[in-house]
Amino acid sequence: MRKRKLGTLLLAMLLAVSLLPLQAGAFTGEVQLGSGSYSTVLPPGATNPQSNIYKTGSVTGPMPTNDWWSNLAWDTYSEAQYPHPLAVKNQSDGIRIYYPGNRITANSSCVCGWINDIHDFTVGHTAVASFPDAKVDGFSDWFVKAQYQSGANAMNVTYGHGSPYVYFTYSGGSPKLSFYTPPTVWSGSASTPVIGITMEGAHYGLFGATGSTWSGIGTKTLTNNGSSYFSIAVLPDNTQATLNKFAQYAYSHVTNTQVSYSFNAASSTVTSTYTYATQAKQGTQTGTIFALYPHQWKNSTHSLLSYTYNSVRGTMKTAEGTSFQTTMKFTGVLPSLPDKGSYSKTQLQQYVNEAEAEVYIGTTDTYWVGKQLGKLATLAPIADQVGDTTAANKFRNDIKTILQNWFKASDASGNLKSQSMFYYNSNWGTVIGYPASYGTSEELNDHHFHYGYFIKAAAEVARVDKTWAQAWAPMVNLLIRDIANANRSDTMFPFLRNFDPYAGHSWASGHARFGDGNNNESSSEGMNAWAGMVLWGQATGDTAIRDTGIALYTTEMNAINEYWFDVANTNRPASFTRSTASMVWGGKTVGDGTWWTGNPEEVHGINWLPITAASLYLTHYPTYANKNYNALVSENGSTNFDAWEDLIYMYRAISNPGEAKNFWTARGAALGAEAGNSKANAYHWIYNLDAMGNADPTITANTPLYAVFNKNGVKTYIAYNMSNSPITVNFSDGTVVSVPANSFNTGNGGGGGGGTTDTQAPTVPAGLASTKTSTSVTLTWSASTDNVGVTGYDIYRNGALVGSSTTTSFTNNSLTAGTAYSYTVRAKDAAGNVSAASSAHSVTTNPAGNQYVTADFTATVTKPTATSEKITFQPTTAALYVDIHYLVNGTNQQNVRMVNNNGTWEHTISNLSAGQSMEIWFTYEKSGPQYDSPHYTYTH
């Protein structure tokens, strides 16, 4: 949230305090970090966030802020929160629950799904009419637990992103649901613990404990008598089958959620794993039903259910289980664009000279000094490219002077400074820079926007001065830990303060004190922060910081393309006619204003700036960029722009570089650059895109600092090497580029598109083997080799292509039991070369039997004889052990360690008789943790 007048990876970040000796500070409360320091004493005249945090004794350690649920910690109860698909609000009488769903409205500039003064019902407590407050009683990566307490009477409520469920536990009373009008009860009765209701067109399942009953049916108040635990679920429809499905998981309460990120440098992909821990309040069910946002289900192969929900982000699709994964391409960042522009070097030099003559000061607030730092960071490499070493050194020295001033809490006399310093607030677990602005101190707003400029400027210095970087790294890392800490053991800062791993993007407001929930305006400044982490981590050799930056950059890029830009035009109602969202809120999407103006130039430009070499994701969809630009012109009424002309021309270069150059020729001399930009950077960007085209996201590289440009089919391959030794970069289309130490691939700033053409096919796959069930065959083979690198394999069944794999295994599902199949495999490389087919491998599926398939395993029951059963368990991820548990006719539980047969675990049960009732379930290891499967029953 910002009011502005103008324009696991479970990675351990560098905990500098543990790596550097603690030195005596010049004043009490000064903490030395490398060559810098921060203060634990509030500077004179500075403001702090409120001291009161609404949390229980169960919450220890740093308090998360800038989340979708943050207001629960800041206010007595809370403003509205939007976990999606539900909306909720903590009140004195309980928690208000509302499903926007088909009641979402839209007009030309708003997709609106807020609560306002309506709700479907409020869940309260039979013994308490009004609670004194609601407090945070626990939290995880995308769930929160609220406690309502009045004496011995308590109600704990757990809810989270993507969950159709809200979970309750009670002491001293029972669940009481209050409605505006009596709901329609379409399933169950007063004597059943589960009932299905409809309220104002929204359908819900209400799930009381076994043995509980309902009173008040037909009235505006329903009471679930005899439940110490309870849950509700918003349902996609009002059928009995749907109610039964959601009842399956209603007593499997979510207790923890956790994301982990993994960056595969070879394929330039980020895999995000989302995991749920649950507690069975009755029965033994594990896992839950969860709803995925568009940026998730479009990038996941997880099996989906048929149920969907409508939201202000678009259609949410559902799945079930204990985890799911998304895989997204990281499209690279560069420290600067290369020197490939069609510009005049004389003119570019003139713009560098103009910037060099400016005076840069470091005494303004964190945002505006950040803008100065960002401007200098783009100027320095451009000065390098025109051969102006004096200007380049000046720009980087100005960065050093500003940062070193801010990175020291004491003045020359050893006294606490009142400005240009950072202070650590241990109550909230955050670092605040003073002078603060736009609520960065009292409200903890915008830290990633402000500090991102500091980090990215430090990365530009670190690119050429490793000694400086080593001395000041602990202070840079302190800012990174504040906005994007990935070390869950860090006792100073919360996990990923500004980034919401489930929503896929950052939030700006620290307190989220709005009826529309939290908000994020300048998505591009968030991207600037994550790009800064990538560049800083690469420059300093800190792969933990680098890879966290890559994960956040990649995920937020996908979220921006879905929710700010909607590049595929699939997520918003047709009545929303704006080409862009200027702000995304929890409860709405708006496209006609910023915090400070409705001026069209700034409404559009706020999600572009700062435009740097890390902004190439804006060029991935030139058709959309053309639509967005034309909408700006229409809203403005002409191409006579009165603000941010330089940014607009830079953006226009994405879809029409010729027109952008014409604009620059006509207006370049007269315009004033946006405060964080320069004429040199604008000119450099426009003419580089004119020469090379836009970035091509379909081609990746095995180094993080890269880009591939494509102009009418002519590609330019760019990579930057921050190491002291040459590297060889392999691009996914087979191009190979050698990059000298500390430079672009043809010299520092030289650009170039050198490479080789790959025409050699991989070797033929060999050694095909298989395991099988009655409906599936899993193939394995020996890896092929290639002169550049094998990128995958195509699998053929009976001569027809049935799938591809990037590993040396493949499972072919949905086969017919007892049927013979013949398989061959071909290897392929990035250049499109394909090997000859392997030798055919024949396999016959097992006879028909019971089969149970989840995202984590496939279990199959076959009957080799009339008195025996063969049970196989095939985990998706290789398991160290699998135990089977079974009951015959409900008695004499047996627990047996299954036998591993090439990745398929087996056990045979003997001495059975026809008609006996069987109950089986499994305990299995998966990457460390142990899990229990659902229970399955059938008749032998």
TrEMBL record:
Keywords associated with the record: Carbohydrate metabolism, Cell wall biogenesis/degradation, Glycosidase, Hydrolase, Polysaccharide degradation, Signal
GO MF terms held by the record: carbohydrate binding; endo-1,3(4)-beta-glucanase activity; glucan endo-1,3-beta-D-glucosidase activity
GO biological processes: cell wall organization; polysaccharide catabolic process
EC number assigned by the record: 3.2.1.39
CBM56 domain boundaries: 852-940
Domain of life: Bacteria
Domain Fibronectin type-III: 761-848
Catalytic reaction(s) noted: Hydrolysis of (1->3)-beta-D-glucosidic linkages in (1->3)-beta-D-glucans
Signal peptide coordinates: 1-26
Family: Belongs to the glycosyl hydrolase 81 family.
Designated name of the protein: glucan endo-1,3-beta-D-glucosidase
Biological source species: Paenibacillus phyllosphaerae
